[in-house]
Design brief:
CATH architecture of the largest domain in chain A: 3-Layer(aba) Sandwich
Order of helices and strands of chain A: HHEEHEHEHEEEHEHHEHEHEH
Number of strands of chain A: 11
CATH class of the largest domain in chain A: Alpha Beta
CATH topology of the largest domain in chain A: Rossmann fold
Number of helices of chain A: 11
Shape of chain A: globular
Oligomer: homooctamer
């Protein structure tokens, strides 16, 4: 970055780049305005990740519009989260979409080839947590990670979890997804020797308070190596897990 | 009770009991007023339990006063909870007191001989939960129960808990005590085939919110057979555990 | 359990059981995976209770699938909770279902014959609490308990409750169900000499905060022997009450 | 009031009162400024009650200053609430003070002679609620009411309360004071046929959340005729009870 | 009550009342069970008020059933709260119903003739609070009180309230109803010299948190003589106001 | 005001104004009652702002009624907030309405000509915050302010905000609107040298808790010059911004 | 800013500024690092305000260190908030300090000469709110504003506030400071025609919940032109009020 | 693990390991009980991390006892968190301790040599967050990581953060620590292309609610790659950051 700046300034000095061009670059016009959203065209390069569209609260038409703007600017793969089946059908009529119904998530283009340091294990406490898990799984796969699904291994039947001990020991990153008491994160965290991303879900009723119980529980995990994302935030967990799985030496 | 009432009324009819006496009895003067407390003299018979004095917010002198009133009315054993070491010293100077410093609990007289159907296992997530556990343990022992202590078996080191699996399978009642994420109750609940009384503790910091996190977690336990008492309420758990351990057929 | 382990290892030593078989057994493959749920086939033996299916968030088809898997593995009786009338109709078309509309609960097979130490009394504060009470009642009956229903005995008309004093004195376990201020648990707890399981309900409005008021009230009960389950958790209370009613000496 | 206004305007018209005087009166300069407080000299007449000083956060010197200003303006009786023993000692050295240590409340001058329609019964759930009860009692007595104290009649021992049924039936107003689950208000409310003022107290621990549990419980009381004041607000309850006990026909 | 008991016992003594009869009476069978509700037939006498049916969560058929049971037991006037227009139509087809659409409240029979010590003023902060106000107004009128409605006098336009100062000074009881910041109760409380019953409403959005803001505000009112009922509890306020308006000397 | 009072009193003295007239004026009958609302006719003069109708919870017919009353009293411009498209259509059939669909806001008459000291910049964190922003924008424009819209400049892409640094430096007032973590207010507050009005929105899910997260975040802003209005309160922000933009010297 | 950038780049082009210098400038090294704080030397120019030191959690020595760094960089006037009397004494020994004990605030150097458009009125509900008010007052005075103090004008005695109506009408900005129910902001907001900054205080007890009640109340104010700062944030209110009082046309 | 099990069973089969020994091993007696804590001797191997002692609530003597047990079992390096200066002095007298006063953290033995993939950047919003930051820093250094400290770069002075853009771009993991509005995490998350661990701190007052505001803010971060640990949990963040910095391919 530093070197970019120096190089740009040197180009200005040498007259290779005009002052106006440089000013423009330095102000970083890195997005295109399409009215209802500032589409961020440079994020892929900057964050090492393809563009993601958050579908909630957007119409199918707006989603298509954003996707096309991204594609016409060279973005080949676009992930769309929180998109209902209905919207997905409309979007699929306009662009080629691969859609995961359970996770309410889809993408245009291709998943990157699986890479990184190893496998991401996604564990859920119950079957009701699966939508969040699928959102995480597709997000991770889209960004080039191998995902192992380990669903319905809640702590009230600890033997189910124990039976998959090796899987847990082998993971590079684990995503632990649970509602209600959210204890899965602590138990998995205690068994594993890798980072555990805990995702509280809004599954439950009464004193589950829409995920608050699981959230607090996970934040208070007595196991080391556990961190937490927002309630039901499968995308966030999947993205972060992929980031960790691709951590690498930087040259500087 | 029904028969008592019928018998009393028949005595009235026969003139054996005066109207005034009967009125008095029917109004149930079952306590003695010593100014700052209505000491309940009949509870032992009624609830099958000896009298308990809640020490918090009472001076050592008031505690001694209540204990003596109870004793002069025939109560031989009195349990005193939430009594600091200082107060205990003052109380001990006036009456013969057995005191458990960790649990801040003591008693005058004797524990009832251990009985009931089996053993009460008291498990804690960490060492900081021990004061609550000791309050529960002494309460249960005082009321005639055998107690097995199983401390520091939190879920982040699930193998520690697993190593005591048989103990857990053998229990008649289990008290699971934990702060922070309170996951112990769910894991123990899933392993055991007996009632589990969960006690959230105020151990932890930040998002533990003085026990709220553990409380919510335990209320949302996905294991069957788990119920919850107030934060740090070791006495309540010990008392209830003893009650369950002494459940018996009633003649009617 | 200990002896099982020793016996298994001795079989291995004697060559009666192959290493692979033993490894398999030790890893405890005690469940069958049917895709959307790990059906737990051994729980009846392990927990002394028949299998329960939590119907919320499952389609009628999924419920039927789980029930059939359980039945084909020898489970004769299956309880299904939180199942709407609509789903129940679909399930009933596939398997023989007994359904309780008020409690939104049903079962396949038979209730176990009533047994245990005595009767479970289920009291509610008002008529709006009856759905939760019926969930508790059917759960307890399914697991072989005699249930006495005592509905609409809220504390604002304390004479109604007083009129049933003997019932309360006769119970082995009491389930006290109330919304709004949740005071029923404390009053019943003070009258009874047996364990009281308090169930806060989401009945009420305004400062009832969806059951929070009753929940806090019950957790703070000044009566001994009271513990609490989640808001509206009739099943949990019924199951635990049955467990307590069947508490027994263990041989070891 | 209306007539006052008309009369004043007529005096202006007749030239009996100058424009400036009238303007002053109409702007209502009904208080005297002593720097740290606008002492309200006309409240006794306006509200039918003597002046009250809220002692919390005021120094003993400030209290004395306010009391003297009030007295030099003709106020004979002054009530001072939330005044610690220490401050009371300093105040007592300067003015003649009657002080109630338990209620942390005192007054200069005399209580008005007991009057009104009947008796105010003040009931508490436990002995720890007595400080709040005494604050209420002295406040009511100061304002000319007969008070009956009925302490330690919590609902977990419902027979204690039942034994005083007649007292409750005889009251003109009842103040029900309780911490923890706050159920006393509902039970008393159901027994009584007069207004019940509920005072939640901060007595309790854990899920009592400094009085929140009792507060919510009381707000949700299913008994009619119950209203609630702030946590630990004995003064507010005593003042309101006196107001109700002195309700009377107005001439207009 | 005391005398009743004495008299009953003396009748037993004289053989005028059989033991069984007396036992029955003493157990107080003062209600009739109609399956889904214990209809309380004696409350009118006991509480000086006609019976009230809480319509929420009851079907029109259940309401009709309860009303008829009450009427066939001699209850002439029945108030029904929280009853939607639809239900009201069904109920009106079965019994003669007077219905107030805004307040979602109706009654069978007649309002008692207005009596008591004076007028009840019902003030609201805005027009959105009127439904709660009408519930209060009809409740008070049903129980024999004169009601003065003073709507839309919120504190942000303090001159509107000031213009009705005399009305406020003339009231025997005031009901102050407001959502959002709930400041009306404090301002009215400061202006009035009679009891003020504050009703927080769920009117507002965002940080109004469904009435929590107004509730807390009203509980913290710095004006004396203010007490609070549950959010949106117009009935409770109207009933209590009527009770205060009818406070009277008791003979004992 | 003072002079008005003096002048009125002097008119009374001189007999130019009758006592009754003066009494009426002094009681300030400054509004007209149309049944369901006290329409405030003098507010425009008093607050330097045209009348605003809060449409939420009012029927289209009520809105039309209020608008007409205002107009027949000389109010030319009326702003109507929180009005759904459906209601707007009905209102538009009765009076000439300009309607902004996104902001759910409309007005009858004209916006005042843009004036004041400078420009109001309205910035949003995301596209989902635009409805709140439009409510603010139309409100400010209606009251005679120039508005610059700067949407979708959330802090996770800080370069987008940086690219508009000059706009921010040039503003007279800034409205920063954001949901989720609400960080926009702090960042903008740190960059700007003018007052920043922060509007938390209910955009987000899970731990956003309907805007609570953004609200708390904004209240805790470490930047100076930031204040906060209610969640989603675009009107309040727009109105206040206009007030600040028109702040001026007062003659007295 | 834009022009600065263009000019800098042109200087680079012309070789007048070296690439390194330009890089440095573009990275904006506008502060000096003194170890425990990045002292911001350019803020006065940038924000039109002198530097402020937040004293809480800093030792007197650290405060002196920061003050001296600022002064040696040309800052003549420094405001220090949240500084206890003890710390102030130590600071005063090292630098010349003017200290306001009630507001726990002091400054080195001079207050700017009073200027701006008019007066800032600071009103408090009670005497306990004065410390917050003084923090606001000194902050505003330090930044060159005339402040009018109007203390103890809470809404429960609305006539006190009414008596100062003209003051309120004359203000350019009003700061309304109140704890408990926080109603002052709404009433003042309704009376005034200028921006009102509401400051909730932690004054109160019980359901005041450390200022939460006042905070919510103020956020829900039904008066227009009211915005809110953090609980007890006198500094923030004073600073913002000064900013508004100095709002001016910008040249661009 | 699988292979271990197979090997062990084969040893049993071959008679090389006795049944009892095998049973013992299979029950996993991997810890030593020293009374007040189950010291976990195998964790270093299992989790790739040295043992950590949580000092809060432990006496200096207990800390020394645990440290010695660990050391006598071959653990050379022990980290002790949440240890006050006083305790540290006592511990230092018994074992050789390196202590960081600001972070209240110390260790016996050595930090592992810095390794992993790159640098961990620890950024704080203010100077008051430094204690949490130092806890994180020492934890990370102890586990063999290079740490770069970047303190006092809060978002209200965004240029300070911008000036260190390269540092942020160069990091392998970033720990963003902030109280109050906690916006730092989002801004850093948007700038960085590596995992960001957010640590809310209890710094702030009023509506900061002991860290709740920052916690919610961080959970709602709109930047990707951000996850959150408990309030003030510097250790957890430092440990997890080290784990991510050492993520590596697993052989299986």
């Amino acid at each position: 970055m530093e070197t970019d700046l120096i190089m740009l300034l040197e180009s200005v000095k040498r007259g290779e780049v005009s002052v106006d061009e440089a000013a423009l670059k330095l102000k970083g016009k890195a997005f295109e305005d399409i009215g209802y959203a500032k589409v961020d065209l440079h994020r892929e390069k900057m964050q090492g990740a393809s563009e993601v569209v958050y579908g909630e609260g957007k119409t199918a038409e707006q989603i298509v519009g954003i996707v096309r703007t991204l594609m016409s600017n060279g973005q080949k793969n676009v992930l769309i989260t929180r998109m209902s089946e209905d919207k997905a059908a409309t979007v699929a009529a306009a662009v080629e979409l691969k859609y995961n119904k359970e996770g309410r998530i889809g993408y245009v283009g291709e998943c990157r080839a699986p890479g990184g340091l190893g496998k991401i294990v996604i564990a859920t406490g119950g079957t009701s947590d699966i939508p969040v898990a699928e959102e995480a799984a597709v997000t991770a796969e889209f960004h080039g990670n191998e995902v192992v699904r380990l669903y319905d291994v809640g702590v009230a039947g600890i033997h189910r979890l124990m039976a998959h001990r090796e899987l847990i020991m082998d993971a590079t990153v684990i995503i632990a997804i649970a509602g209600m008491e959210g204890a899965l994160a602590s138990v998995v965290g205690g068994m594993a020797d890798c980072p555990v991303i805990a995702v509280p879900t809004s599954v439950g009723y009464g004193a589950a308070f829409e995920g608050l119980s699981a959230l607090l529980s996970m934040l208070n995990s007595c196991a080391s190596g556990v961190s937490v994302v927002n309630i039901d935030n499968g995308f966030g967990a999947g993205y972060l897990a992929g980031m960790i799985n691709h951590v690498h030496k930087k040259d500087n």
